[in-house]
Structure formats: structure tokens, C-alpha cells
Amino acid sequence: xxxSSIIFKFVAFLVISSSFSxxxxxxxxxxxxxxxxxxxxxLLKLRKIKGYLKKINKRPVKTIKAxxxxxxxxxxxxxxxxxxSPDGDLIDCVLSHLQPAFDHPQLKGMKxxxxxxxxxxxxxxxxxxxSLQLWTVSGESCPEGTVPIRRTTEKDVLRSxxxxxxxxxxxxxxxxxxxxxxxxxxxxxxxxxQYYGAKASINVWTPRVxxxxxxxxxxxxxxxxxxxxxxxxxxxxxxxSPELYGDNYPxxxxxxxxxxxxxxxxxxxxxSGFVQINNRIAMGAAISPRSSVNGRxxxxxxxxxxxxxxxxxxxxxxxxxxVGYWPDFLFSHLRGHASMVQFGGEIVNSRSMGxxxxxxxxxxxxxxxxxxxxxxxxxxxxxxxxxNLIPLSNLHLLADHPNCYDIRAGKNNVWGNYxxxxxxxxxxxxx
Length: 431
Description:
The protein is α+β, with helices and mostly antiparallel strands. The protein has 5 helices and 21 strands. The chain has helices spanning 3-35, 40-56, 69-74, 154-159, 242-245; strands at 62-64, 91-95, 120-121, 132-133, 146-150, 183-195, 197-203, 216-224, 232-240, 251-257, 275-276, 287-288, 299-306, 313-317, 321-326, 338-348, 375-383, 388-391, 396-399, 406-412, 416-422. The strands form 4 sheets. Strands 3, 7, 11, 13, 14, 15, 17, 18, 20 and 21 form a 10-stranded mixed β-sheet that branches. A 6-stranded antiparallel β-sheet has the order 10-9-8-16-6-19, with no helix packed on it. Strands 1-2-5 form a 3-stranded antiparallel β-sheet, with no helix packed on it. The radius of gyration is 22 Å and the shape is globular. The termini are far apart.
């Protein structure tokens, strides 16, 4: 064994040992702080959180870990020795039939369904460079028969205002009128017909989010019901949410609700509902690479559609990676079809500093700045009653505050229906 090899292994051992020790001490100190001189209410809260974590974090057959990002940068040879995820996540490989979905009373004892027939495309669409997920850069994946689940930690839950709110959107997650609250949108939508799915390629950026309790997302919505308490939605795209994830990475996410975000539904796999079948995609995991201004552009493909045979709503990520499905019994109106499809961006403006937030939507640039600066959606399509992917007609545009975030649409032979959208938030015209 050479001297350099010995030194490398020794330094690597010290780095991992010190980071692991620091992690353990940090956890011990956190636990002691949580348990010292804490009122009964706080202790009860902590017990509830631990109970929730025990329920949601299933026993893995394998865990893909990250101790420190610098190890990957300076000791890339360690990838051969350890399974590392550079975004700091713990990815648990859980047996498919033990994932959170099967805690649902109507799914207990069942197994994931076989893939359905994919919607038929009538024309070929342009292909650009795709983004993937950071946890897979080491070449790791979960074994067949398991699904990758981002582990939820006590720190994740404690960032939320309450355990009840954790993993859930507050109301007004859908844009449908001209009034405004703390959620602001720039969206394109179609309505007035029966829709059985939607597809788009979504440009990926890392927008600045200026407050822990704000977020910035880009997604598509499949919607049915009125905009009262019976609202049904299925949502998927990418988001930056420091409160939910503890960082500013753009992350692949899903959401669903059947009662206007009141009691049902959640992000990703944080409750029973969505059934995952894919062992290569982790919901809530960071996306990489991301686009840069005047640099290379990356996007992710998202398709949601209703299986004509069984009626469940399926999700596809990227070029044909089938992620899983939402069982039809989760919904009321969406058991039949959608009545609206939306595409676009949403931010939260908490006005925590007393004026409009500087949280960015998309790239943080306005729509008229175009390719390489503004963020885009391209190849917008919907799924019809006969499981065909078809172009949109009667596309409507809506921006709550166009001086803060705006949107502009177009159509060509390469991108089909597309639009640019986004903005910087607070500026001279958006005080």
C-alpha cells in the first residue's frame, strides 16, 4: 500500500468520523435542549412528533446517506466505499408494500398496481437537456421491489408552525379569481371542458426565497370541483421551500387534496395516499443540474393522467419514468375527470418586512426577457377522453401582480404551446 493511499484513507476516516461525531453530539444536544426545563406542552408536542416520525419513516432495507458535501468534492473516490447524497438527505429504500400509502384503510394488505397504458402522443416533441436528482449522482439507486423515500427528521417538523400544518399547504393554493391574498400566481390555464390529464416540460431554476415561511414553486395543477370546500387538485412540479426541506434547493414535489387544502392531502409521501412504484425517483429530493442566466437550460417533464381502465391518476417524471399513482377513491370530483388544468408559478408573499417580498418566481426575471433569462413551460398538452395527448386550445393567462411577476405565451413548431413567466418580486414598480 502506497504512502499516499494510506494518507488518503486516514484523512477520509478522520473527516467521516469527525462529521459523524459532530452529528451525534448535535443530536444529543438538541435532544437535551428539548428535554431540559421544557413545559409539559412542549414535551407532549415532542412525543407527538416522535410518534409521527415513527409512523411516516418506514423501516428501510438500505439507506443512502450524506455526511458532508465536501467529501464528494475532494474525496470522490469515497463514492466507491459509501453511499452519499450531496444534498444532505437520507434516502431510505423501503419495501414497496410498506410505504406510507398502504397505511390507508382502503389500501391495507394490497400491493402497487402494474403500469397502465400511456397516453398516445399525436406528434413528436422537442427534447432539451433534462435535470435529474442529486441523490443519484453517485450511481446509487434503491433495489428492485423498494421505493426511495426522503427521510423526515425532527428538525423538519420543528421548522413548521405545528405538526398539523407540517407537510400541508394552506388554503388558496390554486389561482381562480382576481382577488389576492398572500399567495401570488402567474399561470396559464384551460377550463370549460373535460380533462383527463396534462403534460409539460418545466424549466428548473433556483429562485431566491427571502423568508423561511415563504416558498417559490413551478407546477401543473389538475383541478375539479368548485373553489369552495370541495376543491380537488393533483399537483406536481418543483419547489424551493426552506420551511419544508431546510434548504434552498429546487426539489421535485407532488401534492393532492380533496377538500381545498383543509384536512386531506399532503406533499410527497408525508401521508397515506400516493402509491409509488419507481425505485429511481425520490419525491422531495433535490433536482440537478439547474438553469443559469445566459447559460445552459434544463427542464423536467411532468405528466399526470387518468388511467382509463382503473380510473387512478398516474404521474410520469422526465422521459418516461413512471413514478406512481393517486388512487381514485382519494377524490370526489376527480373520480370522474378534471374541469380545469393550470400551469405556472406560485409564491408566498408574507410581507414579513412590511413590504412586498423579494422572493423570486421562476428565474427571478420577467417574461419579456425570454430564453436564457426568463423561466418557461413548453410543450403544454392535455389528455382527452380517449387517452390522447393533444395541444391546448383557448389558453388563458393570469398574473395577480404583473409588476411583480408576469407571464407571456406563444406557440411554434418546436415548443408547441409555451410561455415565459416569473419575476423578482419587490422592485420599483412592485413596492
